[in-house]
Design goal:
- The protein has helices spanning 11-22, 65-71, 99-106, 112-122, 133-158, 195-204, 234-237, 317-332, 340-344, 350-370; strands at 3-7, 26-31, 42-44, 51-53, 60-62, 77-79, 85-88, 91-94, 188-192, 209-213, 227-230, 247-258, 266-269, 278-281, 293-303, 312-313, 336-338.
- By secondary structure, it is of the alpha/beta class.
- It has 2 domains: 3-81 and 188-240 and 316-370, Rossmann fold (3-Layer(aba) Sandwich); 85-172, no CATH class.
- The strands form 4 sheets. Strands 8-7-13-14-15-12-16 form a 7-stranded mixed β-sheet. Strands 10-2-1-11-17 form a 5-stranded parallel β-sheet.
- Helix 1 runs parallel beside helix 6.
- It starts with a strand and ends with a helix.
- The model has no long low-confidence stretch (mean pLDDT 97).
- It binds uridine-5'-diphosphate.
- Residues 148-347 form the UDP-galactopyranose mutase C-terminal domain.
- Its EC number is 5.4.99.9.
- It comes from Comamonas antarctica.
- InterPro entries: UDP-GALP_mutase, UDP-GalPyranose_mutase_C.
Length: 374
Protein backbone atom coordinates (compact mmCIF):
# COMPACT_ATOMS: atom_id res chain seq x y z
CA UNK A 1 0.00 0.00 0.00
CA UNK A 2 1.20 3.48 -0.82
CA UNK A 3 1.98 6.37 1.49
CA UNK A 4 0.18 9.38 0.05
CA UNK A 5 0.18 13.10 0.81
CA UNK A 6 -2.76 15.26 -0.22
CA UNK A 7 -2.29 19.01 -0.21
CA UNK A 8 -5.55 20.83 0.47
CA UNK A 9 -8.67 19.67 2.34
CA UNK A 10 -11.25 21.08 -0.05
CA UNK A 11 -13.47 18.92 -2.24
CA UNK A 12 -10.59 17.70 -4.44
CA UNK A 13 -8.43 16.66 -1.51
CA UNK A 14 -11.27 15.19 0.53
CA UNK A 15 -12.66 13.06 -2.33
CA UNK A 16 -9.16 11.78 -3.10
CA UNK A 17 -8.58 11.03 0.59
CA UNK A 18 -11.84 9.09 0.74
CA UNK A 19 -11.14 7.09 -2.41
CA UNK A 20 -7.47 6.36 -1.69
CA UNK A 21 -8.13 5.74 1.99
CA UNK A 22 -10.89 3.27 1.17
CA UNK A 23 -8.49 1.50 -1.19
CA UNK A 24 -6.29 0.90 1.85
CA UNK A 25 -3.51 3.46 1.31
CA UNK A 26 -2.01 5.46 4.16
CA UNK A 27 -3.13 9.02 3.49
CA UNK A 28 -2.04 12.28 5.08
CA UNK A 29 -3.98 15.44 4.26
CA UNK A 30 -2.38 18.86 4.78
CA UNK A 31 -4.10 22.22 4.75
CA UNK A 32 -2.52 25.57 5.48
CA UNK A 33 -5.79 26.85 6.92
CA UNK A 34 -7.13 25.98 10.36
CA UNK A 35 -10.27 24.38 8.88
CA UNK A 36 -11.34 21.89 6.20
CA UNK A 37 -13.52 22.41 3.10
CA UNK A 38 -11.44 25.17 1.49
CA UNK A 39 -13.56 27.97 0.07
CA UNK A 40 -16.70 25.82 0.47
CA UNK A 41 -16.28 26.03 4.24
CA UNK A 42 -19.49 26.65 6.19
CA UNK A 43 -19.94 27.35 9.90
CA UNK A 44 -22.88 28.23 12.11
CA UNK A 45 -22.83 31.84 13.21
CA UNK A 46 -22.41 31.96 16.99
CA UNK A 47 -24.81 34.92 17.27
CA UNK A 48 -27.71 34.01 14.97
CA UNK A 49 -27.15 30.26 14.39
CA UNK A 50 -27.46 30.90 10.65
CA UNK A 51 -25.27 28.57 8.59
CA UNK A 52 -22.74 30.89 6.98
CA UNK A 53 -20.90 30.18 3.75
CA UNK A 54 -17.65 31.66 5.02
CA UNK A 55 -16.11 32.29 1.59
CA UNK A 56 -19.29 33.27 -0.20
CA UNK A 57 -22.37 31.41 -1.45
CA UNK A 58 -21.98 27.87 -2.73
CA UNK A 59 -24.97 26.21 -4.37
CA UNK A 60 -24.40 22.61 -5.33
CA UNK A 61 -25.65 21.77 -8.80
CA UNK A 62 -24.83 19.05 -11.28
CA UNK A 63 -26.20 16.97 -14.12
CA UNK A 64 -23.64 14.28 -13.43
CA UNK A 65 -25.53 11.33 -11.95
CA UNK A 66 -22.33 9.75 -10.67
CA UNK A 67 -21.35 12.90 -8.73
CA UNK A 68 -24.87 13.42 -7.35
CA UNK A 69 -25.12 9.81 -6.13
CA UNK A 70 -21.60 9.93 -4.74
CA UNK A 71 -21.85 13.13 -2.73
CA UNK A 72 -25.14 12.17 -1.12
CA UNK A 73 -23.42 9.30 0.66
CA UNK A 74 -21.68 11.93 2.78
CA UNK A 75 -24.53 14.23 3.72
CA UNK A 76 -28.18 15.09 3.22
CA UNK A 77 -28.93 17.65 0.52
CA UNK A 78 -32.02 19.80 0.90
CA UNK A 79 -33.82 20.99 -2.23
CA UNK A 80 -32.73 24.50 -3.14
CA UNK A 81 -33.18 26.43 -6.37
CA UNK A 82 -31.03 29.51 -6.81
CA UNK A 83 -33.27 32.35 -8.03
CA UNK A 84 -31.05 35.39 -8.30
CA UNK A 85 -32.33 38.96 -8.54
CA UNK A 86 -30.43 41.82 -10.12
CA UNK A 87 -30.72 45.56 -9.59
CA UNK A 88 -29.91 47.79 -12.53
CA UNK A 89 -30.91 51.40 -13.15
CA UNK A 90 -32.87 51.46 -9.89
CA UNK A 91 -35.12 48.54 -10.78
CA UNK A 92 -35.17 44.89 -9.73
CA UNK A 93 -35.15 42.09 -12.27
CA UNK A 94 -34.93 38.33 -12.36
CA UNK A 95 -31.77 36.47 -13.38
CA UNK A 96 -30.65 34.62 -15.38
CA UNK A 97 -32.04 36.59 -18.32
CA UNK A 98 -35.44 35.01 -18.93
CA UNK A 99 -38.73 36.05 -20.46
CA UNK A 100 -39.78 37.93 -17.31
CA UNK A 101 -36.52 39.91 -17.32
CA UNK A 102 -36.82 40.63 -21.02
CA UNK A 103 -40.48 41.66 -20.93
CA UNK A 104 -40.15 43.78 -17.81
CA UNK A 105 -36.96 45.44 -18.98
CA UNK A 106 -38.33 46.23 -22.43
CA UNK A 107 -41.92 46.89 -21.34
CA UNK A 108 -43.15 44.16 -23.66
CA UNK A 109 -45.37 41.07 -23.48
CA UNK A 110 -43.32 38.92 -25.85
CA UNK A 111 -44.09 35.25 -26.29
CA UNK A 112 -41.04 32.94 -26.52
CA UNK A 113 -41.17 33.08 -30.33
CA UNK A 114 -41.53 36.87 -30.38
CA UNK A 115 -38.61 37.29 -27.98
CA UNK A 116 -36.43 35.00 -30.08
CA UNK A 117 -37.28 36.95 -33.20
CA UNK A 118 -36.61 40.25 -31.41
CA UNK A 119 -33.14 39.19 -30.25
CA UNK A 120 -32.29 37.68 -33.62
CA UNK A 121 -33.02 41.14 -35.02
CA UNK A 122 -30.95 43.19 -32.54
CA UNK A 123 -28.07 40.78 -31.89
CA UNK A 124 -24.75 42.26 -32.89
CA UNK A 125 -23.08 39.39 -34.68
CA UNK A 126 -19.43 39.82 -35.45
CA UNK A 127 -17.79 37.96 -38.25
CA UNK A 128 -17.29 34.55 -36.65
CA UNK A 129 -17.06 33.01 -33.21
CA UNK A 130 -17.24 35.67 -30.46
CA UNK A 131 -13.67 36.40 -29.40
CA UNK A 132 -14.38 37.77 -25.94
CA UNK A 133 -17.03 38.24 -23.24
CA UNK A 134 -18.46 41.41 -24.81
CA UNK A 135 -18.77 39.96 -28.30
CA UNK A 136 -20.46 36.89 -26.86
CA UNK A 137 -22.93 39.06 -24.94
CA UNK A 138 -23.71 41.33 -27.89
CA UNK A 139 -24.35 38.31 -30.10
CA UNK A 140 -26.75 36.85 -27.56
CA UNK A 141 -28.67 39.77 -26.11
CA UNK A 142 -27.80 42.97 -27.96
CA UNK A 143 -26.30 46.11 -26.44
CA UNK A 144 -29.07 47.34 -24.13
CA UNK A 145 -29.36 44.26 -21.94
CA UNK A 146 -25.61 43.70 -22.03
CA UNK A 147 -24.94 47.19 -20.73
CA UNK A 148 -27.65 46.97 -18.08
CA UNK A 149 -26.83 43.55 -16.63
CA UNK A 150 -23.32 42.51 -17.62
CA UNK A 151 -20.97 45.30 -18.58
CA UNK A 152 -20.59 47.03 -15.23
CA UNK A 153 -21.04 43.98 -13.02
CA UNK A 154 -18.24 42.33 -14.97
CA UNK A 155 -16.04 45.43 -14.64
CA UNK A 156 -16.51 45.27 -10.87
CA UNK A 157 -16.09 41.51 -10.66
CA UNK A 158 -13.02 41.19 -12.88
CA UNK A 159 -11.50 44.67 -12.69
CA UNK A 160 -11.18 44.89 -16.46
CA UNK A 161 -13.24 45.54 -19.55
CA UNK A 162 -15.36 42.62 -20.81
CA UNK A 163 -13.51 42.89 -24.14
CA UNK A 164 -10.43 41.57 -22.32
CA UNK A 165 -12.21 38.55 -20.83
CA UNK A 166 -12.88 35.17 -22.43
CA UNK A 167 -16.38 34.42 -23.80
CA UNK A 168 -16.43 31.28 -21.62
CA UNK A 169 -17.19 33.33 -18.49
CA UNK A 170 -20.52 34.52 -19.93
CA UNK A 171 -21.35 31.00 -21.09
CA UNK A 172 -21.72 30.01 -17.43
CA UNK A 173 -25.11 31.78 -17.48
CA UNK A 174 -28.08 30.68 -19.56
CA UNK A 175 -30.36 33.09 -21.45
CA UNK A 176 -33.89 31.74 -21.64
CA UNK A 177 -36.95 32.48 -23.72
CA UNK A 178 -39.33 31.15 -21.07
CA UNK A 179 -40.13 32.08 -17.46
CA UNK A 180 -37.71 29.61 -15.87
CA UNK A 181 -35.67 31.65 -13.38
CA UNK A 182 -33.53 28.81 -12.05
CA UNK A 183 -29.97 30.20 -12.17
CA UNK A 184 -28.61 26.82 -13.28
CA UNK A 185 -29.50 24.38 -16.04
CA UNK A 186 -28.35 21.42 -13.94
CA UNK A 187 -30.57 18.42 -13.37
CA UNK A 188 -29.83 18.31 -9.62
CA UNK A 189 -29.47 21.19 -7.21
CA UNK A 190 -29.33 21.44 -3.44
CA UNK A 191 -27.61 22.69 -0.31
CA UNK A 192 -26.26 20.36 2.36
CA UNK A 193 -28.53 20.40 5.41
CA UNK A 194 -25.57 20.41 7.81
CA UNK A 195 -23.27 22.52 5.66
CA UNK A 196 -20.37 21.69 3.35
CA UNK A 197 -17.91 21.37 6.21
CA UNK A 198 -19.78 18.33 7.58
CA UNK A 199 -19.65 16.66 4.16
CA UNK A 200 -15.91 17.20 3.87
CA UNK A 201 -15.40 15.94 7.42
CA UNK A 202 -17.32 12.79 6.51
CA UNK A 203 -15.20 12.32 3.39
CA UNK A 204 -12.06 12.54 5.52
CA UNK A 205 -13.36 10.22 8.23
CA UNK A 206 -11.35 7.03 7.71
CA UNK A 207 -8.92 5.43 10.17
CA UNK A 208 -6.03 5.46 7.69
CA UNK A 209 -6.57 9.13 6.73
CA UNK A 210 -4.89 11.68 8.99
CA UNK A 211 -5.41 15.41 8.83
CA UNK A 212 -2.85 18.17 9.49
CA UNK A 213 -4.55 21.54 9.68
CA UNK A 214 -2.64 24.82 9.86
CA UNK A 215 0.21 23.02 8.10
CA UNK A 216 1.80 24.10 4.84
CA UNK A 217 3.23 21.32 2.72
CA UNK A 218 6.52 22.18 1.04
CA UNK A 219 7.69 20.77 -2.27
CA UNK A 220 10.77 19.28 -0.57
CA UNK A 221 8.49 17.01 1.52
CA UNK A 222 7.22 15.21 -1.58
CA UNK A 223 10.28 12.94 -1.55
CA UNK A 224 8.96 11.35 1.66
CA UNK A 225 5.82 10.00 -0.06
CA UNK A 226 5.03 7.56 -2.83
CA UNK A 227 2.59 10.00 -4.36
CA UNK A 228 1.41 13.57 -3.75
CA UNK A 229 -1.89 15.05 -4.93
CA UNK A 230 -1.74 18.82 -4.79
CA UNK A 231 -4.90 20.93 -4.87
CA UNK A 232 -3.05 24.08 -3.82
CA UNK A 233 -2.04 26.76 -6.34
CA UNK A 234 0.31 25.29 -8.94
CA UNK A 235 2.46 28.45 -8.97
CA UNK A 236 2.83 28.37 -5.17
CA UNK A 237 4.14 24.79 -5.41
CA UNK A 238 7.08 26.11 -7.44
CA UNK A 239 7.59 29.09 -5.10
CA UNK A 240 6.11 31.46 -7.73
CA UNK A 241 9.59 31.43 -9.26
CA UNK A 242 8.34 32.12 -12.81
CA UNK A 243 5.78 34.71 -11.64
CA UNK A 244 2.31 34.65 -10.10
CA UNK A 245 -0.83 33.47 -11.83
CA UNK A 246 -3.52 36.14 -11.52
CA UNK A 247 -6.56 35.62 -9.31
CA UNK A 248 -9.43 37.76 -8.11
CA UNK A 249 -10.10 37.66 -4.40
CA UNK A 250 -13.25 38.72 -2.53
CA UNK A 251 -13.86 40.81 0.57
CA UNK A 252 -17.08 40.27 2.50
CA UNK A 253 -18.47 43.01 4.68
CA UNK A 254 -20.93 41.67 7.23
CA UNK A 255 -24.07 43.40 8.42
CA UNK A 256 -26.52 42.13 11.01
CA UNK A 257 -30.20 42.94 10.74
CA UNK A 258 -33.49 41.91 12.30
CA UNK A 259 -35.97 39.71 10.46
CA UNK A 260 -35.43 39.78 6.69
CA UNK A 261 -33.02 42.16 4.92
CA UNK A 262 -33.54 41.58 1.21
CA UNK A 263 -36.01 38.70 0.93
CA UNK A 264 -33.71 36.56 -1.24
CA UNK A 265 -30.44 34.65 -0.97
CA UNK A 266 -28.58 36.65 -3.65
CA UNK A 267 -29.14 40.06 -5.20
CA UNK A 268 -26.65 41.28 -7.80
CA UNK A 269 -25.86 44.97 -8.18
CA UNK A 270 -25.20 45.66 -11.83
CA UNK A 271 -24.54 49.42 -11.64
CA UNK A 272 -21.16 51.07 -11.08
CA UNK A 273 -22.70 53.52 -8.60
CA UNK A 274 -22.73 50.67 -6.03
CA UNK A 275 -19.23 49.38 -5.21
CA UNK A 276 -20.19 45.83 -4.21
CA UNK A 277 -21.09 43.16 -6.77
CA UNK A 278 -23.75 41.35 -4.79
CA UNK A 279 -25.33 40.92 -1.39
CA UNK A 280 -25.95 37.45 -0.04
CA UNK A 281 -28.30 36.75 2.85
CA UNK A 282 -27.31 33.37 4.13
CA UNK A 283 -30.41 32.29 6.00
CA UNK A 284 -32.22 32.20 2.66
CA UNK A 285 -29.85 29.40 1.55
CA UNK A 286 -31.50 27.26 4.26
CA UNK A 287 -35.24 27.96 3.89
CA UNK A 288 -35.96 24.84 5.96
CA UNK A 289 -34.56 26.61 9.05
CA UNK A 290 -36.19 29.36 11.14
CA UNK A 291 -34.14 32.36 12.27
CA UNK A 292 -35.47 35.56 13.80
CA UNK A 293 -32.41 37.61 12.84
CA UNK A 294 -30.37 37.75 9.69
CA UNK A 295 -26.81 38.21 8.49
CA UNK A 296 -25.87 39.63 5.10
CA UNK A 297 -22.57 40.01 3.30
CA UNK A 298 -21.72 42.70 0.80
CA UNK A 299 -19.25 41.22 -1.64
CA UNK A 300 -16.37 43.22 -3.13
CA UNK A 301 -13.96 41.86 -5.71
CA UNK A 302 -10.31 42.89 -6.15
CA UNK A 303 -6.98 41.59 -7.39
CA UNK A 304 -5.53 38.84 -5.23
CA UNK A 305 -2.17 39.85 -3.74
CA UNK A 306 0.28 38.44 -1.18
CA UNK A 307 -1.48 36.10 1.23
CA UNK A 308 -5.02 36.93 0.04
CA UNK A 309 -7.29 33.94 -0.57
CA UNK A 310 -7.50 33.14 -4.29
CA UNK A 311 -11.04 32.75 -5.69
CA UNK A 312 -11.31 33.27 -9.44
CA UNK A 313 -8.46 32.43 -11.86
CA UNK A 314 -8.19 35.30 -14.32
CA UNK A 315 -6.84 33.21 -17.23
CA UNK A 316 -5.95 35.91 -19.69
CA UNK A 317 -3.42 35.33 -22.45
CA UNK A 318 -0.46 36.21 -20.20
CA UNK A 319 -1.67 33.88 -17.46
CA UNK A 320 -2.24 31.04 -19.90
CA UNK A 321 1.36 31.34 -21.15
CA UNK A 322 2.68 31.33 -17.58
CA UNK A 323 0.40 28.43 -16.71
CA UNK A 324 1.84 26.45 -19.64
CA UNK A 325 5.33 26.89 -18.12
CA UNK A 326 4.18 25.61 -14.75
CA UNK A 327 2.27 22.73 -16.34
CA UNK A 328 5.42 21.66 -18.19
CA UNK A 329 7.35 21.65 -14.94
CA UNK A 330 4.51 19.85 -13.16
CA UNK A 331 4.77 17.05 -15.72
CA UNK A 332 8.42 16.60 -14.77
CA UNK A 333 7.64 16.23 -11.05
CA UNK A 334 8.26 12.58 -10.32
CA UNK A 335 5.33 11.81 -8.04
CA UNK A 336 3.04 14.84 -7.94
CA UNK A 337 -0.41 15.24 -9.54
CA UNK A 338 -2.20 18.61 -9.59
CA UNK A 339 -5.97 18.72 -9.12
CA UNK A 340 -8.85 21.14 -8.50
CA UNK A 341 -9.51 24.83 -9.14
CA UNK A 342 -6.15 26.03 -7.80
CA UNK A 343 -4.04 23.04 -8.84
CA UNK A 344 -5.16 23.31 -12.46
CA UNK A 345 -5.95 27.06 -12.46
CA UNK A 346 -9.44 26.74 -13.93
CA UNK A 347 -12.80 28.36 -13.06
CA UNK A 348 -14.55 25.11 -12.13
CA UNK A 349 -17.53 24.41 -9.89
CA UNK A 350 -17.74 21.94 -7.01
CA UNK A 351 -19.33 19.17 -9.05
CA UNK A 352 -16.59 19.30 -11.68
CA UNK A 353 -13.95 19.19 -8.96
CA UNK A 354 -15.56 16.09 -7.47
CA UNK A 355 -15.90 14.34 -10.84
CA UNK A 356 -12.26 15.03 -11.65
CA UNK A 357 -11.03 13.87 -8.23
CA UNK A 358 -12.94 10.59 -8.71
CA UNK A 359 -11.30 10.17 -12.13
CA UNK A 360 -7.83 10.90 -10.74
CA UNK A 361 -8.30 8.34 -7.95
CA UNK A 362 -9.49 5.76 -10.46
CA UNK A 363 -6.55 6.47 -12.75
CA UNK A 364 -4.14 6.11 -9.83
CA UNK A 365 -5.61 2.72 -8.89
CA UNK A 366 -5.34 1.53 -12.49
CA UNK A 367 -1.73 2.71 -12.75
CA UNK A 368 -0.78 0.90 -9.56
CA UNK A 369 -2.50 -2.27 -10.78
CA UNK A 370 -0.66 -2.05 -14.09
CA UNK A 371 2.65 -1.27 -12.39
CA UNK A 372 3.16 1.97 -14.33
CA UNK A 373 3.79 5.47 -12.91
CA UNK A 374 0.53 7.47 -12.52
N1 LIG B 1 -22.36 38.39 -14.56
C1 LIG B 1 -22.80 39.69 -14.78
N2 LIG B 1 -23.91 40.14 -14.14
C2 LIG B 1 -24.60 39.38 -13.28
C3 LIG B 1 -24.18 38.05 -13.04
C4 LIG B 1 -23.05 37.59 -13.70
O1 LIG B 1 -22.16 40.42 -15.52
O2 LIG B 1 -25.59 39.89 -12.71
C5 LIG B 1 -21.16 37.91 -15.27
C6 LIG B 1 -19.89 38.23 -14.49
O3 LIG B 1 -18.85 38.51 -15.41
C7 LIG B 1 -19.63 36.92 -13.77
C8 LIG B 1 -20.06 35.90 -14.81
O4 LIG B 1 -21.20 36.50 -15.43
O5 LIG B 1 -18.27 36.78 -13.41
C9 LIG B 1 -20.40 34.53 -14.27
O6 LIG B 1 -21.40 34.66 -13.29
P1 LIG B 1 -21.63 33.56 -12.15
O7 LIG B 1 -22.89 33.92 -11.46
O8 LIG B 1 -21.49 32.21 -12.74
O9 LIG B 1 -20.39 33.85 -11.18
P2 LIG B 1 -20.03 33.21 -9.72
O10 LIG B 1 -21.33 32.89 -9.03
O11 LIG B 1 -19.15 32.02 -9.99
O12 LIG B 1 -19.30 34.34 -9.06
Amino acid sequence: MAHIAIVGAGFSGAVLAQELGRAGHRVEVFDARAHVAGNCHTARDAKTQVMLHTYGPHIFHTSNQRVWDYIQQFGTFMPFVNRVKAITGGRVFSLPLNLLTINQFLGQTFSPAQARAFFAGIAEQGTGTPANFEEQALALMGRELYEAFFKNYTLKQWGMAPTELPASILKRLPMRFNYDDNYYNSQYQGIPRDGYTAIVENLLDLPNVSLHLGTRFARAQAAGYDQVFCSGPIDAWFGYDEGRLGYRTLDFVREDHADDYQGNAVINYCDLSVPWTRISEHKHFAPWEQHADTVVFKEYSRLCEGDDTPYYPIRLVAEKALLAHYVQRARRERNVTFVGRLGTYRYIDMHVTIAEALDVAQHYAQSLAAGVPP
